[in-house]
TrEMBL record:
One example GO MF annotation: porphobilinogen synthase activity
Domain of life assignment: Bacteria
Name of the gene this protein is made from: hemB
Protein name stated in the entry: Delta-aminolevulinic acid dehydratase
Record keywords, A-Z: Heme biosynthesis, Lyase, Porphyrin biosynthesis
Pathway stated in the Swiss-Prot or TrEMBL entry: Porphyrin-containing compound metabolism; protoporphyrin-IX biosynthesis; coproporphyrinogen-III from 5-aminolevulinate: step 1/4
Family: Belongs to the ALAD family.
The enzyme's E.C. designation: 4.2.1.24
Protein source organism: Paenibacillus ehimensis
Subunit structure: Homooctamer.
Catalytic reaction(s) noted: 2 5-aminolevulinate = porphobilinogen + 2 H2O + H(+)
Length: 330
C-alpha cells in the first residue's frame, strides 16, 4: 500500500460530497431572536453598541413581528425596558407591564410565533440587581436576598404566562427558582408552560451591550454573588443538576462563545434540550469587526452557529437570527 495510508481528503473533494458527510447544520428551527420592548410612541431606536438591534415601542412592534414571522424564525425572547423602576420590581409583574402588553399584542398578530419571556428583575429594579436587596446601614453593605426574590419571580412568571408567553425563561440565578416558578405556574393553571432555565449563567463581561440596551447595569456592586464564576465547570454541572431535579424543561449555557466546553459538558451529562445564548457582547464584537471590513460577517456568524451545534446545543438565542434567516434562504 502506498503512503499516505489514510486519505481524509477524499471526502472533501466536492461540495456535494462535503454536504453528504456534514455532521452538523444550522437551520431556521434552531433560532430564537431577542427583542427589546419599551413604552412611549413611535420609537424604533438603534442600540448604539448593537448595530441592527433596536428598542421598539408597542406601536412600532407589529412591523418587526411580521418580518420575523415572514423570515420563518420560530421564537422570540422578549425583554422589557420599562419606564418605572422600584425596589420591588413592580413593573415586572404588573399585568399592564411592557412585556405583558407586548405579549398580548404579539399573540393577536402572530399566534404561532413562540414567545419566550425572560423572567428576571434587573430591568425593573431601581438598583439594577436581579433580586430584592437588603441594605445593612451599620455595615454599609447590601445583599441580594434569595428567597424574597423568588416570590417576585413567581409573580412575574405567572403574569407573563397570563399575558400569553409560551415559554418562561428565568435568568436571575436565584437558588430554587425553577421549583418555585414551576409550582407557581402549576397553581395558576399553566402546567403546560415549559421552563427554559438559564441554568448556567456566568458573571460575564460579555453582557455589557445588553445592559446598555436594557438599562440594567447594577447601580452598585456586581452580580458575582448570584451569577457563576467563569472559571468553573463542575459548578455548572451542579447548577444544571439542581434545575433538572426542580423540573426544568430546557437548560441553557450563557454566554456561549467562551463556554463551548460547558455546552459540551451539559450535553454529555443531561438529556434535556440545550440552549446556547450567543450574548450581546459576542454580537457586538463581530458586528464591529464586520463594519470595519475586517471579517466576513456571514461566514464568521455561520461558522460560530455551527460551532454551537457541534458543541451540543439544540438551539441558539442570537441577535443574528434575522440575518441568518436571510442567508439560509439564499
Ligand atoms: C437579565 C439578563 C441579562 C442578559 C439576559 N438576561 C443581563 C445580565 O444578567 O446582566 C444578557 C443578554 C445579553 O448579553 O445578550 N438578567
Amino acid at each position: 500500500m502506498s503512503f499516505p495510508l489514510v486519505r481524509n481528503r477524499r471526502l472533501r473533494s466536492s461540495a456535494a460530497l462535503r454536504n453528504l458527510v456534514r455532521e452538523h447544520t444550522v437551520t431556521l428551527n434552531d433560532l430564537l431572536y431577542p427583542i427589546f420592548v419599551t413604552h412611549g410612541a413611535n420609537i424604533k431606536e438603534e442600540i448604539s453598541s448593537m448595530p441592527g438591534v433596536y428598542h421598539f415601542s408597542l406601536d412600532r412592534l407589529e412591523e418587526e413581528i411580521r418580518e420575523i414571522v415572514e423570515l420563518g424564525i420560530p421564537a422570540i425572547v422578549l425583554f422589557g425596558v420599562p419606564h418605572e423602576k422600584d425596589a420591588h420590581a413592580s413593573s415586572a409583574y404588573d399585568p399592564n407591564g411592557v412585556v405583558q402588553q407586548a405579549s398580548r399584542l404579539i399573540k393577536t398578530w402572530a399566534p404561532e410565533l413562540l414567545i419566550v419571556a425572560d423572567t428576571c428583575l434587573c430591568q425593573f429594579t431601581d438598583h439594577g440587581h436581579c433580586g430584592v436587596v437588603h441594605y445593612d446601614e451599620a455595615k454599609g453593605s447590601a445583599e441580594v436576598l434569595n428567597d424574597a426574590s423568588l416570590e417576585l419571580l413567581v409573580k412575574t412568571a405567572v403574569s407573563q404566562a397570563e399575558a400569553g408567553a409560551d415559554i418562561i425563561a428565568p435568568s436571575n440565578m436565584m437558588d430554587g427558582f425553577v421549583y418555585a416558578i414551576r409550582q407557581g405556574l402549576d397553581e395558576a393553571g399553566y402546567e403546560q408552560v415549559p421552563i427554559m432555565s438559564y441554568s448556567v449563567k456566568y458573571a460575564s463581561s460579555f453582557y455589557g451591550p445588553f445592559r446598555e440596551a436594557a438599562h440594567s447595569t447594577p447601580q452598585f456592586g456586581d452580580r458575582k454573588t448570584y451569577q457563576m464564576d467563569p472559571a468553573n465547570v463542575r459548578e455548572a454541572l451542579r447548577e444544571a443538576q439542581s434545575d433538572v431535579a426542580e423540573g426544568a424543561d430546557m437548560l441553557m449555557v450563557k454566554p456561549a462563545l467562551a463556554y463551548m466546553d460547558v455546552i459540551r459538558a451539559l450535553r454529555e451529562n443531561f438529556n434535556l434540550p440545550l440552549v446556547a445564548y450567543n450574548v450581546s457582547g459576542e454580537y457586538s464584537l463581530v458586528k464591529a469587526a464586520a463594519l470595519q471590513g475586517w471579517v466576513d460577517e456571514k461566514s464568521i456568524v455561520l461558522e460560530t452557529m455551527t460551532g454551537f451545534k457541534r458543541a451540543g446545543a439544540d438551539m441558539i438565542i442570537t441577535y443574528f437570527a434575522k440575518d441568518i434567516a436571510r442567508w439560509l434562504r439564499n
